[in-house]
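Field reference: sequence -> structure
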Amino acid sequence: MPTAAKKPGTEDPYKVGELSEIDAMKLLKTVRDTYNIDPDRIYLMGHSMGGAGTYYLGSKYADVWAGLAPISGAGGINSLEAAQAYKGVPILISHGEKDSIVPADTSRRASMYLQQAGAQHLYVQVPGADHEFWIRRGAENMKRIFMFFNTVSKATNVGLITPEMATPTPRAAPPPKPAG
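Structure field:
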């Protein structure tokens, strides 16, 4: 086995997922070091297996992302405990109703756990759409994902609105009626 495939200082080989994570985060660091990137507007999106990566990297590095958009994401979120890691990061989950590769139940379950955890999210299920819809025929829906990213940032995200935040403001007294 080549030495590059072993974890530094050990004889343990890297798993493919670990190498993918290292590559993705190193690429993000390179982009941030090379370009003037607004740290409040860094987003993560992926389809299918890339959606699984979006869930994984999204929770592990939640402090990095201004928003997440898993599309037909494999794996999803499988427990209320796992959903806790997504609090504070707005998420747009999209899935085709007729997806036979990654069943829509995967995204519905993720949405359910996010809801129970009180995490900001929106689940969009496209009626009649299959797994490839997003790639071959889903331009309008991809536009929605980029519109979502355009509306969220770390600087503008206030999180879930609590009753204390939505306290009604006192109404101003009506102006006096003119004499006469």
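Note: The chain is about 35% helix and 10% strand.
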